Batch of 3 targets.
Target 1
Amino acid sequence: LYISALTALLEMRHRRRRRRGRRDEILFCATDCKYECIIETAQHLGWRIVSGREKDQKKSVTPENSESEICNVYWIDISNIAERMSKLRPWQRINHFPGMSNIARKNRLAQNLEKMRRGFQKEYNFYPRTWVLPLELADFRAQFDSNGRSSQFYIIKPDSGCQGRGIFLTQNFESISPLEQVVAQHYIRKPFLIDGFKFDLRLYVLVTSCKPLRVYLFRDGLVRLCTQKYLKPNPGNVAMRCMHLTNYAINRHSENFQGNETLGACDIGSKRSLRWFMDFLANEKGQRRSDALWSRMGAMVVKVILSILPTLVREYESTFNKGIRSEPKQTYNSTSCENQLDHHPQTIEGSQCFEVLGVDVIIDQALKPWLVEVNHLPSFATDSPLDSDIKARVIEQTMSIVRAKASDRYTYEREERSKAEARLYSNQFATNNLILAQETQASKVACRIEVILERHAPEKLGKINALLRKYTGREVKLLHLIEQKYLEKKTRQLPTNLQEFRQHYVGSEEHTSPNLTGTNKQPFELLNEDKLPVASCSETDSGVELEDRLLVDFERIYPVPLAARMHSDHTPNYRALKKFVFEQDEKRMRRMSCPLRQTRRSTLDSPAALPPLHRDLKDAIEQKVPWGEPPRCNGVEKSPIPRKPLPMPGEKQLLAADRLTRGFSSRQQVSAPCSLVTGDHTDLKATQDYAQRVASTVAHAKKWRRRMDDSRKRQNCQQVALQPRTFVFARTSDTLRDPHLHITNSGTGLKDTATHK
């Protein structure tokens, strides 16, 4: 007994020491990781690898306390990402963004880019004309002649395919299945060639954050060549996949495939480096054209990600802000407002998501880049020294910007416990804290209003105290109205330096990044990001400097650095693109939520339940806001503007409404008589015409029934079809004395009696 007790005590001490040591380790979950280079990089950083096999080794381990469920960093290389996303906790990191599948799937990519091209046709001309089948099958069929042939070649790709599976070229419409989920694109017939071979470029793009958006482009990459020399497509060579398809998974099985034996041999082989290609292009076409191509490829990547930015932000917040949403709602004060501007808990540093995208690009003879596809699960297999060098640098620098700490879990749990205790035991101090917060808020608002009025309306400085008394308890709204009145109209007179802007308007507080969605506009947001000077847009995020220092081989392409913007002539207007995509997303969300708002009558009684559809003050004055506080003038509620009374409907409108209520079309049809009394239908001749129309309707129904019976007999169909029924409605007239009407079923011969009301 003594020995067993001593052994148990030693095991308990050992478990405690091991548990205490694990608190100093970052756990890396490699359960869904397929590549050894990623695991080796994580071990090199000092992270402990968790494979998830302890469930099989220990029967007593539950999913809640297993190490695979409490890891700090998750790396997933399989398509089942949504399942892991649903189980993530607020202190964990993952190598994917929720919503990135909207550009990784070929049909969604085409739909999002087509939506943006409607507003910016010149900016979004970097991808071929694409049809999503079978959704756009009719439009795609119009590209062929009556025999189903076309002079243009189309490349057909499965929606969810990869590694070149299911891709083929065709000129014949009959070779395309109308039931499969595929996309059809114009085939680029004149690509740029290297030694007579067609090729594509694999760009590695790193997205470190979506709010604010930060995108980096790796300065190296892969050039993947075909293994057969290129010829223009014709019916004889469209089946040669190694000539027209640049996928590495297809060409590596070819007899002509050449591998790279050494790292220095970058100018030979079927797979080469992107850095070598840019030097080769500079020697062949000039350094200026090479730099222009590089900047255009970076701009193309940013435009693709901007097309889904509202979706990324919305899904990111809904996935990782669950703990923040569960907190009780508070009134607007200085403390709660500052907490709401931070989209993460204070214990979590940086973004919880990061993602490496593989963007495939084809260059044509005019050196114009064409987007092929976007891979959110790029391959990190290292089949050659060139692969090992490039992919190792991508993974190592990507993991270096993951700001995970071993104490994230315990810090988060400790803060959650303190919050629970504060909610449970601090009710007695709530009133004093609320009063203190309101006083602090009023003083801050007064200082900011004074600065704004001193710059734009000095004659109104004496009215600040009266305004604060009028808006007691609503100081944030007063500040918002003043900003809306003065700052939005005089943006050109604002300071051109961000530091000067902070000194004048923000004071000692740090300027936070604005909310991009536009649906939850923060009250302390003095100026939108798009209204800041161009030179200061990139310095608003504190994490940019750290990432620029760690990502040695990456180039930041969004936000565009000031030096790159000044020396480049190809920088697009990203502000206009971002504004357009958020406006379109807001309209879509408004259309989706308007029917719900109309059915919820209770929201009309509670103005704070839902935001108004029209946010402009001008619309509120014109009584266009369906709910919210009524407009006021000098503290007195304004009376609503009298609306013009609607005119009485005419005779034709009454007849059309009557036909609609009885199930007919609004237009006057032969088989749709009117039950209303009119002066034109009181004579006997009108009654006879009416009887003839009824007889012709019945005859038409019988003829239609006979045709249906004949076609059913020819098809040997044993199913019973619905019989058409023709109803004859009597109309009130002096010539029709009988108040009853016999309704005849022309299909069965049965007679029913109905009373005309």
Note: The chain has a mean pLDDT of 75.
Target 2
Amino acid sequence: IMCGITAYLGAKKAADILLSGLARLEYRGYDSAGVAICSEGKLNIRKKVGKVKELAAVANQMPGSTGIGHTRWATHGEPSERNAHPHVPSAAQSASDASFALVHNGIIENFKTLKESLTLKGHKFYSDTDTEVLVKLIEDVKTTTGLGLEEAVRQALSHVVGAYGICVCSREDPDVLVAARLGSPLMLGIGEGEWFVASDASAFLEYTRQVVYLNDGEMVVIRRGAGYQVSTIKGNKLDPEVIELEGTLESIEKGGYSHFMLKEIMEQPTSLENCMRGRVKLHASAPPSPVQGSRDGKAPDDAPQQDSPHITLGGIEQVLYKDGQELETMLSRLQRARRIIICGCGTSWHAGLVGEYIFEQLCKVPVEVEYASEFRYRAVVLRPEEDIVMVISQSGETADTLAALRHAKSFGCTVLGICNTVGSTIARETDGGIYLHAGPEIGVASTKAFTAQVMVLTMLALRMAQNHTIDDKEYRDLVRQMAALPRQVERIIQNNEEKLKEIGKVYRYAQHCLFLGRGYNYPVALEGALKMKEISYIHAEGYPAAEMKHGPIALIDNLMPVFFIAMQDSIYEKVKSNIQEVRARKGCVIAITDEGNDELDEMCEYVIHIPKVHEVLSPILTVIPMQLLSYHIAIMRGCDVDMPRNLAKSVTT
């Protein structure tokens, strides 16, 4: 569920750390927030419906150095203080004499059965949440068995069916925090004499970069003065790896921009460069000649550079193993695949659709793109020896995509992961993978992650196709053009932002709009429509341009803007015909086309010109004007672009 957890045990004032952590988790989507802090034998609780700043107004003076915090996105029960977290076993949800408090991300699927059983035992419930059922279950175990908090949590969780990331603090032992995970991300941050628990590392990045990622079925118990112990929920002790986080505090702040979304749109030249850094090289040192080479055969430092564009992807050069036996590299496995299945959700699914076109053209391999949420519920025929499954997720924690990954693994399929977050669950559970290296993406509406995902898919397809299904000349040409994309994105932004603002001003009151494209740019039309509806709340639909005649054309009138991607590629003439069909019905046409193409000027209200590029690479450029236009229209309509209503960044249950 799109909620946020943060917790702290140390020497500092817990309220400051919890509230700043919750503020950094706001992008995840929420409707209420709360904290519980242990102090002087009491458990002080504050909750508020609305924004974290409203909670801060009543909680920032709370004393104590141990506490938990939460932002809730309603699932069971409406947004209210009664349903907000933290929850306690007491009748009054803010009772300071409660023995412990709990915050929870996820869904307890068998909460009705548990609630009925606990009700028969005399427990009363005061909220509509499934979380309160877990709280009462832990309390029941403590009361009936005499177990301490840690063991009571273990035993209670053994009865739970569903997904959870939980953290518990206790009035009776303020020097202890207990946290556990099953299906909902949770991690431990390790500082100097202080510890943090959070659903996202951004909550504590300003204090430490030392992190332990909890796996499903694991628990951590933190004790002041003694440190932490990770174990399975069944009680088997573990010695997990401590990982050094990448990134800086500045990377998760706005950096002078009005909104994270605008910052992330503008960062795309840099994020694309970072995505290619160390992977795409245009030159190689010339081999030493007998005259200029040294005796050890190495090229001197001033050796001439050869024009030798190439791609290196370490994540697919690694060797695959099965039952301890070395098999082959991931690249070799990819090249002999008879079918590729790509799974993703939302924007990642759209990136996968672009990948379908790229892999089929360059690698000559059949590709199917599946909604991850549907993949495991269909009778998909999987052939482990022939199929490769790719899963795409910005966060690496998307619940449906994780479920698709595990479903494919259960059939014995090799799974490749593409994600942005180092150390995420998808990164850990796939057989191999490629990181986006796009930097943190905070805005709910994905921008730079989409272009980085398409970039990774393009690099992967080119590496698979090299010396295999395309000739060297085409390979080198595409690598050169790909290396130039960051500067072209920069040019698109510089040359078109003012015109896009003008277009936004004209169409900001539209109630409906269409986005149309063909070939590689059909998925970009879907992505453009998604951006528009996500942040401006204008009803928008994306279609293959030719499909307009099969229904959507009935909607077109002089009040409906229709956005065409009309690059001068192999199907440009057909898209031009589709534009004429809209014009014949008095539709308002806005087109994106190549620089130097003036023949659409008389046919369209507005034309956005972008650099000409090979059609395989065009989606990375054509999406940029759509991102900017959606942003400016949303701002003009007074929408909260970073936290659009009902949405969240990471859908983790």
Note: The chain is about 35% helix and 25% strand.
Target 3
Amino acid sequence: MLRVVATRGLAAPSKAKQRAVGPLAAAVLCGGRRRCQGSLDSSIALAQRAASTFAVPASALRRTAGKLKGGIARALPFRGLCSGSVEPREAMEYDVVIVGAGPAGLAAAIRIKQLGAVSGKDLSVCVVEKGAEVGLHILSGNVLETKALDELIPDWKEKGAPLHTQATRDVFLFMTGAKSGFEIPSWALPRTLDNHGNYIISLGELVRWLATQAEELGVEIYPGFAADEVLYTEDGAVMGIATKDVGIGKDGEAKNTFARGMELRGRQTLFAEGARGSCSEEVIDKFLLREGKDMQTYGIGLKEVWEIPEANFEDGYIQHSLGWPLKSDTYGGSFLYHMAPNKVLVGMVVGLDYKNPYLSPYNEFQRWKTHPEVSKHLEGGSCISYGARALNEGGLQAIPKLTFTGGALIGCSAGFVNVPKIKGSHTAMKSGMLAGEEVFAALTSQSEQSIALGSEMSSFEAVEAAAYQTSIESSWVWKELSLVRNVHPAFHWGLYLGLIYSGLSLRIFGGKEPWTFRNTSKGDHTTTGKAADHQDIAYPKPDGVLTFDILTNLTRSGVYHEADQPGHLTIKPELADWPVSKSYQEYAGPEGRFCPAKVYEYVVDEAGKPELVINAQNCVHCKTCDIKTPGNYIKWKVPEGAGGPQYTGM
């Protein structure tokens, strides 16, 4: 049996809601630069949507409307929508639609506008973001290489980019036990792990800054709207996305706040959703983009941000570690960074191809913090933020074909993560820049006209920016990933052989060995072993000071979803019997352990009958369930826009 329940909601920060009102109102009121069909009806519906999502009084949005120049500067009547019929969606048209306001999506938007400014050929660009604000759904380590940023915005320092903590000391530890370990000398490490010249940052803060740079160039960014559906032409080309309908109750019936989603149509649509994006996965499957490529594999990254006493702070300190508490057959590692003014960023990445169904990545992370080489950095401090996110680990071999008629994949939607470095922001940005360049070239060479100049979508044939594939394969991104392509696959032999081979590959061969290891897995959900073949793991109870239970930490993520909406975590109909008959009976319910937000739990009644409970409100959008559930029985879909975590400082 399955029961989807609404747990006690974790309130979203009211300030975040208030800050989101302005951009949302601007988005729905159809300013003069936007091409909106049926603008008045669209404004009414979307303004209701914004008010419902953020609990914003109607008067507040009416006041905002009155201040807009070139838009509908009028008092909008708020009326109920008829729930007895489905209204057609309104549509807005752009030259380029970008899904996701992360580093790749914003880099692409900025590059397109930069080229337009230089050439005098303007293209309209829209970025849609499911987080209530740009950056609220962003989570990363993050030690940033500035190579791509240097190319995109050379004067980023003068423009106030939030890069304030440069790496000063780099330590790599091998932990052999709960209290033991040793430092690996720098001369024994490959150059690819050297962080000299890099910056310890909050990626969320960086993308917020990138968003301001993009908006100054004329990019329209709409946070709080979730891309729910890919739109296709009659010929099967991608022609944009539709945002999610809102105001639908758990029972599937329209509420009095019901509003249809908007169609955002584009001559080109760039998917920058991050790892395992739902729209990205759809187009990968539809256009067979993974044909001839390895299946993508993933890890789950868990992170906390701590504030510590000034006496314990070492500006720019970087520490990575391998080994304990993970066993040698589980791929993973950890990081610890000191970021000004007094923060310590700690986290662990666990490869989702692990075998033991009793393993809990969250509890391994909590246990790792008790090691003396970690706990000493947190002494006297307090945890202020927590989150989790899946990340790509398949490397070069798992990058799909990048282009298709009407669009392309960029950033982590494609998988440009340098796994040994635990870095992907610089490669994601560069992929967005290259895609932006080739999309600009394709659209401006197709016609002197553009939607920015007043043309309609129907005036243009769908094109494929195929040169983007060539550009990325000729770039430093491809070279960088090629040199480390055999590192992660080598760890399928276990930790020690993996370390030996990695050392030979990177130090002796320089990553240029004439062979390439392939991943033969059919997906991380296939690697989980049966419970009968593994031992249960007894994790220590959290102390509430250094280690925490999941629900306590979850309050630090700011996670929030509208309670009365259909579940966005669904069981695939053809696998309806899998949770109880397979996952629980044969695999001991691993989803209750790998989920970092306690979304999944099995409840056994008095008769001994198990029941799966899905606490969808807890979801932090990590996508791990879409990757790791036995049989791959869960389908992750976007919830209503603005729902999810509200990360700060991540």
Note: Residues 298 and 392 are 5 Å apart (CA to CA).
